[in-house]
Amino acid sequence: MSLLTTGIPLPFRTSISGGLYPNRIILVSGSILPTANRFEINLKCGNDIAFHLNPRFCENAVVRNTQINRSWGSEERGLPGCMPFARGQSFMVCIRCDVPCLKVTVNGCHQFDYKHRIRNLLSINQLEVSGDIQLTQVQV
Questions:
Q1: Are 140 and 5 in contact (CB under 8 A)?
Q2: Residues 124, 116: contact at Cβ < 8 Å?
Q3: CATH number (domain holding residue 106)
Q4: DSSP 88-123
Q5: What's the pLDDT tens digit per position in 82-131?
Q6: What is the tally of structural domains in the chain?
Q7: Galectin domain: from which residue to which, for each copy (predicted)?
Q8: Which of 25, 47, 49, 136 is deepest in the core (most CB within 10 A)?
């Protein structure tokens, strides 16, 4: 487990030592810029993006997807309630790996499950964060 805190420059990239496996947790915390359009958190497997989390403020949506061989799959956008991210506010995203899916909470509230589209979880070994935020903490 590695922990980085305060004023982390973007784009941020780090390895996920040992890849994903059941019960592994990744935490990403920061503050959303007051003029934010979007930001993204990507879990990568080589050049593929196993999990793309992309809050889009102009669309009032949290888009999730997977990119394999430079081709995006079908987007998922549904949420149980309203948009969990707000411009000018801090956030904490918790991504917990489970056998069938990733379980994602924002600020302590479960938002969605994302079914694995890349089955070899151990090969998902990079985290990238970029966009209109100030990143303050990453734990992998």
A1: no
A2: no
A3: 2.60.120.200
A4: T-EEEEEEEE-SSEEEEEETTEEEEEEE-SS--GGG
A5: 999 999 999 999 999 999 999 999 999 999 999 999 999 999 999 999 99
A6: 1
A7: 12-140
A8: 49
